[in-house]
Amino acid sequence: xxxxxxxxxxxxxxxxxxxxxxxxxxxxxxxxxxxxxxxxxxxxxxxxxxxxxxxxxxxxxxxxxxxxxxxxxxxxxxxxxxxxxxxxxxxxxxxxxxxxxxxxxxxxxxxxxxxxxxxxxxxxxxxxxxxxxxxxxxxxxxxxxxxxxxxxxxxxxxxxxxxxxxxxxxxxxxxxxxxxxxxxxxxxxxxxxxxxxxxxxxxxxxxxxxxxxxxxxxxxxxxxxxxxxxxxxxxxxxxxxxxxxxxxxxxxxxxxxxxxxxxxxxxxxxxxxxxxxxxxxxxxxxxxxxxxxxxxxxxxxxxxxxxxxxxxxxxxxxxxxxxxxxxxxxxxxxxxxxxxxxxxxxxxxxxxxxxxxxxxxxxxxxxxxxxxxxx
Length: 375
Hints:
Shape: globular
Helix content: over 70%
Oligomer: single chain
Strand content: under 5%
Structural class: mainly alpha
Distance between the termini: 34 Å
Mean pLDDT: 82
Largest sheet: none
């Protein structure tokens, strides 16, 4: 197996030795045919989106974004918390971005922006992985594995205006750059892309504690994360009060939580796996090795963070998308695992898990139209 990996490595050295942004371009280009092959409905959605834009209309939920871009604090009326519109009330980043669009079509504008930013995302993710692994081959395989996840394809499959990719990018920026103000702004922008980023920032905090060896309380980075939580809460309550905005969570989700949990419990394991697929094994190994190191405090924090993320993702219904907001657990897991495996063992493990991420047909890759959603 190791000889097979070495042969692959020799054939791909010209890519492995490329600069990160060039790798980002190649990975973005290569992941598109991969998505088409594993998700035939992708082309259907693509042509449906193109048709809407060519007819001068917005595609699906971009109508809501277009409405908000005209009035950022417009009150969205919806009859059910299950509707996308009811959850868009405080997802203000995309409407604000579209307010400055040079195109009439908000659908076209956002999707055009996501492609070059996708290269930026792959480049930053490469630098985060490489900082931990310090090996170009291992970093390359981690990046290839990411191609097979919803995390790696979100930059060009977001026809529905979910805004997930932008939140992922801002969360990544918050762990990549040391500048305090940039961290704070990035985290706040992520929260206003989607509320789930607020819970994803739990793993941003754990990244600082476990990977960068910061204190959980009163260190510079943990203080920034705490300030971002406080600032978001205050600003959201202020906007809610001033513009008489509301969210249906307390009124509708909480009373029906039993029903929601019952529906999600039937598929939670499949959906939970579909967020990180083969890399779930890497995360599990991280837990095991933390116990082996007797780092019970770090282990407890990660377990609590994982259970809490699963709980909230089940409430939010879109499990695959919801759990992907916790992708910062991947560099955390790599940091722990690399200290317990030799270079040869680590190459075999990551190579095999990458193959699983590329070929495993989970819900992040296929759609049975009008039956099972892409997410």
